[in-house]
Amino acid sequence: MGDTILVAGGAGYIGSHTCLRLAEAGFTPVVYDNLSNGWESFVQWGPLEVGDINDATRLDEVLAKHRPAAVIHFAAFIEVGFSVAEPGSFYANNVGGSLTLIEAARRAGIDKLVFSSTCATYGAPVRVPMDETHPQAPLNPYGRSKLMVEEILRDMDRYKGFRSVALRYFNAAGADPEGRIGEKHEPETHAIPLAIATARGERDKFTLFGSDYDTRDGTCVRDYIHVLDLADAHVAALRWLLAGKDSAVFNLGTGTGTTVKELVDAIERRSNRPFPLEPAPRRDGDAPSLVADNSKARELLGWTPRYSLNDIIEHAWAWHANGATALAR
């Protein structure tokens, strides 16, 4: 046991940025990824072990080989629409795979895991900003799958002494300022890369889902948090567990809400040209406003977001403008 950390899903967007921060903090990230939604070119700060989190035998081999001190778990499906269309596949990967990973860690003598969760576990907000005591009533199988894993982790702590930190993200965005890695999904469903692609003439239009919400301009309010701020929080959560502290849950957001229209306006200013917007009806399950109360993470983890919305847009713009998203798997 030492400074090696197994990063399940470490070839993906947030996982790869966390590997960058882990390496900068003196850890050795070992990426465990089946590359179905990750990119081999994003694995730059430690070895890659190709495998699926549902493959217990492969997990046992990798854990025995590298003997990590802890696990960070990003390996999940994230597309809400897919979760509605194929809930069985979603639960098999997100819940079944998580349990297989947890049990493999326990067999290897590991009792510490940082879990990539989501504010989608809260469902429709009953108050904004949302703190960690907000009721959890997910609106779709994606959010429910993450909540189920949180509940598994609570039971594993209570009955087996397996400690964890669950990090409930709000809206991850941005890219490495040095352009080494960035946001790349297939298909892409996130607002900032879609808006940038539209501003660059790579898409015909940007679809604006709902303009009649009870917000300051009628569009949804979201809390956009830089991916490297998220990565820093994972390192802080890892240190929390390595220091022997108890299991915990933390929100990760800036505490500042931005409407979709404000986001589009900011990207238009960056591109110096307007781009077409297509109004569309509200999507099922879209809450009017999702904004984090991040005071618990600030106080206990000593974590403070460093990047502004302008930083997020600038770093994402540079990533896309440099053609980096054309990187092969």
From TrEMBL:
Residue ranges of domain NAD-dependent epimerase/dehydratase in the record: 5-253
NCBIfam families: galE
Entry annotated with the keyword NAD: yes
Self-association state and partner proteins as the record states: Homodimer.
Record lineage: Bacteria, Pseudomonadati, Pseudomonadota, Alphaproteobacteria, Caulobacterales
InterPro entries: Epimerase_deHydtase (IPR001509), NAD(P)-bd_dom_sf (IPR036291), UDP_G4E (IPR005886)
Gene3D superfamilies the UniProt entry points to: NAD(P)-binding Rossmann-like Domain, UDP-galactose 4-epimerase, domain 1
UniProt GO molecular function: UDP-glucose 4-epimerase activity
Cofactor(s) in the UniProt record: NAD(+)
PANTHER family: UDP-ARABINOSE 4-EPIMERASE 1 (PTHR43725:SF53), UDP-GLUCOSE 4-EPIMERASE (PTHR43725)
Stated name of the protein: UDP-glucose 4-epimerase
Source species: Caulobacter hibisci
Pathway: Carbohydrate metabolism; galactose metabolism
Keyword Isomerase: yes
Keywords assigned: Carbohydrate metabolism, Isomerase, NAD
Pfam families: Epimerase (PF01370)
Recorded family membership: Belongs to the NAD(P)-dependent epimerase/dehydratase family.
EC number assigned by the record: 5.1.3.2
Catalytic activity: UDP-alpha-D-glucose = UDP-alpha-D-galactose
Region of interest: Disordered: 271-290
